[in-house]
Design brief:
The complex is a heterodimer of chains A (395) and B (157).
Chain A (H helix, E strand, L loop, with lengths): L4 E8 L11 H16 L8 E5 L2 H4 L4 H4 L1 H4 L6 E3 L6 H14 L5 E9 L5 H6 L13 H16 L4 H15 L13 H6 L2 E4 L1 E2 L8 E10 L11 E9 L10 H5 L5 H14 L4 H4 L2 E3 L7 H8 L8 H6 L23 H17 L12 E8 L3 E8 L9
Parallel strand pairs in A: 2-3, 2-4, 9-10
Antiparallel strand pairs in A: 1-7, 1-8, 4-7, 5-6, 8-11, 10-11
Helix pairs in contact in A: 5-15
Chain B lengths: L24 H14 L2 E5 L6 E2 L5 E2 L4 E2 L2 E5 L2 E10 L16 E8 L6 E5 L12 E6 L10 E6 L3
Antiparallel strand pairs in B: 1-2, 1-5, 3-4, 6-7, 6-9, 7-8, 9-10
Classes of the chains: A alpha/beta (395), B mainly beta (157).
The complex binds zinc ion.
The site of zinc ion has 7 residues of chain B, from loops.
Chain lengths: 395, 157
């Protein structure tokens, strides 16, 4: 049986379009210092470091060693994890597994990216298969746009429904001093913004961002040593089934599942944690929604409503601040996307919500929170966090 | 940030190139040489579930069995979903920007159970529909690449 694990320290940089005043290890160090301070720890208290980014964006590999001055990992066990868009949540899961294993009591999880250092679309393309994907791959935006087209075809959803999500996320970001974009946007603004890849417009997409995030994961054996209220990991999962970038569009043809990798990972976690009605049971969700249509379809894949039910529920305000389950009080990915940090920021925001430390964006009385990561081609990490210590550690 | 912008140094990678020599494998090579030499599509059929994969793969993921039966597949099929790309970016494979806008679709060829991503010859999204019939158009000069297919043409009216 694994150890039960809590988050006991949170740090992140302010998310910005570019940070030419710091290099990668200096950016990482800002988040790490804040997390260690928050946890009342010094560098010597860290047993191991799990760190990740997506190498393609900076064109520099082996962050595990070159960041060692900034990461706090000097002469300690370090493991690097890179899984694309999900990197940040995978780093969180890796730190969780380290501590749950019983081999480490205090593990630092770090996710970071300097997306200002390359063209995001070009860099993403280099992550894919040179024969079958790259020659005809039009980048992440086109890949998402084809999902949006098929989603609207399969449901009654409209471009305006998606624009509602984009506006909501930007509105929420106004309460978050760490967010990159602080812009007041209307549905008309989104609808009037130029098409990047029909039906996806500029206003529907995430920005590209520089930023870092760090979290301390601690074992139940040492959790009382920390000044902050522990945030307990209730369960985590990731599931994969696609091999080629074209594969995810198959489920629109077969109708067998609705983003099956996300459905399966969430269903598996829910079953183990005891979630039968996500909309009722989660008090808040910080989801990796890279573009507006994701705020519709992924709510359905995550079981918040039936297939095709998200536009109505969304427009009724269920996911707004003050709604049944506020989604992305932080402003989410459509307001800040330093890709390797983004998933970990979702987890960090859930931790702050559960601790009651989310400032202007605090949702009242949060007991249970959902965090996700999203990676292309269409997989998802799913993490459930809670105020109460779980009965047992769950994979 | 107190530093003046001119005093924060950046470095451009410029015309940097790192050549690779990738391996398509026997099955992938068969698909690409059929395109190149005969303008034909070939897939592979799973003996257990009967699914036809295009391009051919050696293992059916769900069944976890080796696939050996290569089967011919049509150069015509239908649009499963689509977009019209209007933002330009430098393609890291070529170092050049493909002119925008261009149509782009997930296409299920007749006789296949998987979809292929490729360009289509229509840039007005109102004129493309899910379920539209399309047909492969080949380049004159072919090299054994997915780009031996110039694009898929909408079979109109
Ligand atoms: Zn099979």
């Amino acid at each position: 049986m694994g150890k039960r694990v809590a988050i006991t320290g949170v740090g992140m940089t302010h998310q910005r379009s570019a940070r030419p005043d710091v290099n990668g290890r200096e950016l990482i160090n800002e988040a790490v210092r804040m997390a260690l301070g928050d946890a009342g720890m010094t560098r010597s208290d860290i047993d191991a470091v799990v760190i990740g980014n997506m190498d393609h964006f900076e064109g520099i590999n082996y962050v595990d060693t070159w960041s060692v001055d900034g990461s706090g990992g000097l002469m300690k066990p370090i493991m690097k994890l890179t899984t694309g868009g999900t990197t940040g949540t995978t780093v969180a899961m890796g730190a969780y597994y380290h501590v749950a294993s019983g081999l480490f009591d205090r593990v630092l999880a770090i996710g970071w990216e300097k997306n200002s250092e390359s063209d995001t679309t070009g860099a993403i393309i280099t992550a894919f298969d040179p024969f079958w994907d790259r020659p005809i791959f039009a980048g992440a935006v086109a890949g998402l746009a084809m999902e949006a087209t098929a989603y609207m075809h399969a449901t009654d959803a409209t471009e305006e429904d998606a624009a509602y999500v984009a506006v909501r996320e930007r509105k929420h970001a106004l309460n978050n001093p760490y967010a990159h974009l602080h812009i007041n946007m209307t549905i008309a603004d989104v609808m009037g913004s130029p098409y990047l890849s029909w039906p996806v417009k500029m206003g529907d997409m995430c920005p590209r961002t520089d930023g870092a995030c760090a979290l301390v994961f601690a074992s139940e054996d040492v959790v009382d040593d920390f000044p902050q209220r522990p945030v307990w990991i209730q369960g985590v999962a990731d599931r994969h089934l696609w091999a080629y970038t074209s594969d995810p569009y198959l489920d629109f043809k077969t109708g067998e599942a609705w983003f099956p990798a996300m459905q399966k990972s969430s269903q598996d976690v829910y079953r183990r944690v005891g979630i039968t009605d996500p909309l009722e049971q989660f008090d808040v969700a910080e989801l990796y929604l890279p573009y507006s249509f994701a705020g519709l379809r992924y709510m359905e894949s995550l079981g918040f409503c039936e297939k095709g039910g998200a536009p109505e529920l969304t427009r009724a305000g269920a996911f707004d601040m003050g709604g049944k389950c506020p989604v992305n009080p932080s402003g989410g990915v459509m307001s800040s996307n330093a890709i390797g940090a983004t998933g970990l920021i979702r987890v960090a925001e859930c931790a702050w919500q559960i601790q009651g430390r989310a400032g202007e964006r605090q949702v009242p009385d949060v007991k249970l929170a959902l965090a996700t990561g999203f990676g292309g081609c269409f997989w998802s990490d799913v993490l459930v966090l809670g105020k109460d210590k779980p009965e047992k550690a769950r994979g | 940030m107190s530093e003046e912008k001119k005093d924060l140094i950046t470095l451009e990678s410029g015309e940097m190139a790192q050549p690779f020599r990738w391996t398509a494998g026997a099955y992938g090579s068969k698909f690409l040489t059929e395109l190149r030499d005969n303008k034909k599509f070939v897939g592979v059929k799973c003996p257990k579930c009967g699914k036809v994969y295009v391009p051919p793969r050696r293992v059916c993921g769900p069944c976890y069995v080796e696939l050996t039966e290569l089967v011919p597949v049509s150069g015509e099929g239908e649009v499963v979903t689509y977009t019209v790309v209007s933002f330009g970016f430098v393609d890291p494979a070529t170092g050049t920007q493909k002119p925008v806008p261009y149509g782009y679709a997930a296409i299920m060829l007749d006789g296949s159970d998987t979809v292929l991503l490729h360009f289509i010859d229509e840039t007005d999204p109102e004129k493309i529909t899910i379920g539209a019939r399309v047909k492969a158009v080949f380049e004159e000069e072919r090299t054994g690449s997915l780009l031996d297919i110039k694009h898929f043409e909408l079979i109109r009216g």
